[in-house]
Every structure is written in C-alpha cells, then in structure tokens.
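User: Sequence in, structure out. Go.
Assistant: Echoing your sequence, followed by the structure tokens.
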Amino acid sequence: MSSNWGNRLKLSVFGESHGAAIGAVIDGLPSGIPLDLAAIAQEMDRRSSRGKALATPRKEADEVEIVSGFFEGRTTGTPLAGIIRNGNTQSRDYSRTKDKMRPGHADYSGWLRYGGYQDYRGGGHFSGRLTAPMVFAGAVARQVLAATYPRARIGSRIVAIGPVWDEKHLPSEAYPDMAFEDETFPLYNGDLKTAMLEEISQARAAQDSVGGIIEGFVTGLPGGMGNPLFESVESSLSALLFAIPAVKGVEFGTGFDMTGMRGSQANDSFFMDGDAVRTRTNHNGGINGGITNGMPLVFRVAFKPTPSIAQEQETVDMARREDTVIAIQGRHDPCIVLRAAPVVEAVTALCILDLSL
C-alpha cells in the first residue's frame, strides 16, 4: 500500500476514522516560512461538522498538534508532521455489521485488497475523516504559496446539489473580485440556497443521501507552470482530487460540454492586454498542453451521494458467505458537498505548490 504523494513536495496521510489519531507528514517544504496557526485552524473549522445543521452528528475538535518541522513560528525545512486526535467515536455502530459489505463503500474492495485485516470501523483509512489531515496540509501549502505568488487566490463554489444547479460560468477575469454573499455556502445565485438545502433535507428524511458538484478555481498564477503528458496540471491535480473520498468525476474548463462544440467555438482566441497575453474565453480552464496559460485555472469535481444510508439494502455477509440485507447505522452526512469545498481547495494548494517548487 502506498500512502505517499508528490514529486518535489511529499505528502503522507495516516490513521483511521476510529483510531487514536489521524495526521499528515509533509516533506520538501522550504525552511523559514512563517505559519499562521489561526489561519490553519480556520480551514480545519470550515471542513468540520460543528455548527452545520445538515452535517454528521459526529463532532470532532479537529485541533492539529504540530510535532515536527516547526520551530519558533517558522518551518525548519525538515518533515512537518501534524496529528489530529480522534475523540468522538462510536465503534459499536460498526461491530454489529462488520461482515456485511456496505453498498457503495470500500468494504468489499478493501476486504479483497487487505484480506479482511483492514480497520472496518467508520470506513477505516477509506473514510472521509482522512480529509482532515489533507486540509491541514493544504492550509500549510497555501501559506507557502502566498510567499511566492502573493496574487494567487484559491477558491471554490457549489455548482449543484442533486438536481438543483447554479449557472455554469467560465469567467476570464471575474474570479479575482468574486465575493460570495455566503462564504459558507458559496453560490453565484444565492437564491438557490433554500432549494439546495431542501433537497438535502428531503434526502435525509427519506433515509437517503444526495450528491453534487463543486467548482474550484485558482487565479493569479503565472503561465508556464506544469508539464506536458504525465506531469500536466490536469493529471497532477486530478490525481489529488480523486484521492478525496466520494469523488467520481473531474473536468477542466468547459469539460465534457466541449464535445458538443466545434473547434471554432471551443478554441480560446488570444489578444494583447497591454503587455499581457490573455484569452477572450476560457473553455480550456486556463491550461493548454498541460501547462498554465495565465488565465484562471477552472475545474469541477463531482461527488457521489454519501453511500451510508439508513434504508435497507441488499448485500452479502462475508463470514456466512450468503446474501443478506443491511440498514447502515451510525452518524453520516446526507450530503458530502457541504463540507468538501475546503478539501478541494486544500489539495489544489498542495498540487500547485508541488508544481512550483
């Protein structure tokens, strides 16, 4: 099993959902970078379920204890390690059904991969709980990036919750000045918030769940970042985005909708804006040939509905080797999207930092 990612920057994430702790080790950071611990705590709080009525009832402090690579307020250049203690676990919810493979989960594929020795509690290492150390690592990466690219901004917004869609928009220069009315529920059309929350509430009432789409963006990046083919911006970022549990699709720019366009429509024509080269449209999402072109980097991430639902579902019992049914107990989000935006932003920061070092 490999738990490492990165080329110049190395990231390792460890722990299980109901283990003693989870955490991350970041290797390859430059030395002497000041870290704002309050800003890191703010990113952790964005991902947390605390204060979110439609999130899981499991409330964790998500306080990060940095145990190495940080001294007198600055990075030392040695591996930076952060630990997040697990405190609010209810493992008995899972011991009753440990042999029943939960549909939509990694129970069966994990059983095949690890021979039944994996930690089944709360999904173990497959759990969305492991996005907490990702957010910690991304919060650190943001601050390192700010020292090199002070104009760069990483952000995200909700595009869809179930069948309720905000408009698809590929601005050229709108993002730098974009201030969402509700930063905890970022939408172009704020009037859709009620309908989206209602969609989640209805799914929860039906003992079901709902998925959605998050759009991520990066502005203020220079052109020329990335590589063709195997270390392109698209392939590097996609690898990290697909590391987020429940992500099932990624598209850049106009993405799959480009298949219905002609080349004359999909091509982004260039023009001179003073001394800068820009494009009049941004269908390619700020990337050509795997390399940034200086326009906003724009991409969308599709999240499937939370697989843990209380409805009775068909499955198999691996101990008895027979068909059975399961109604999943425990504490789960009816919609992952509401807490996923800071995770999307975090892995984006990590990817950009790795490409820039």
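User: And one key feature?
Assistant: The radius of gyration is 21 Å.
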